[in-house]
Amino acid sequence: MPVTPYYRRRRRRWITMRLTIAAAAGGSSPPPPWSATDNFNRAGPSLGADWTDLNAGFTIVGNELSVTAAQRSSVWNDPPPSADYWVQGTLDGGAPASTIQGIALRIADAANMYAIHANVAADRLYLRRKLTTTWAVLRTYINTIWPRTVKLEVSGTTLKVTIGGTPQPDESDSNISAAGQAGVCTHSSGTTPGTIDDWSAGL
Length: 203
Prior knowledge:
Elements: H1 3-25, E1 35-38, E2 51-55, E3 59-61, E4 64-67, E5 73-76, E6 85-92, E7 100-109, E8 112-119, E9 124-131, E10 134-142, E11 148-155, E12 158-163, E13 166-167, E14 171-172, E15 181-188, E16 194-202
Antiparallel strand pairs: 1-16, 2-5, 3-4, 4-16, 5-15, 6-11, 6-16, 7-8, 7-15, 8-9, 9-10, 11-12, 12-13, 12-14
């Protein structure tokens, strides 16, 4: 019957069109997710070409990032494509009074950012916001294990902190919304260096 060959032709053509569209859609893979990492295992003292100092003060000593000065910040040069991302690092220091240093994100400039700082001498970690040069403590955590790996993540207005693999209660703040850059910073100076190691960031 004349209808059957016509149906088959239409069916083959439809299948061919589907295969062509599927091939075109899968022809280019999406770009890899944004990420950054630095273990500082190299000769110092400069951080190197991947970093920019907003306030110079960080140096590489003994394959770690070391700092003794207050109000210092450095950023990873490749900015995140989204305002929602995380940053992680291992924080340590020395007695009797180490520099209060930490990791930071949504760094707009040296005067605006979110950070988590370590005060090793006091066995404390602080989630802080820096807005137009003024620091505000959003939450304080007791920590007695050093060195300690901490992670700070932001999603919208929610700030999430993980300490040694254990998630902490969420905090909310809406003052800094732009992606900015990821990096490191200090709050105050000390008589012994604060250190940061195995820094990383991602989406």
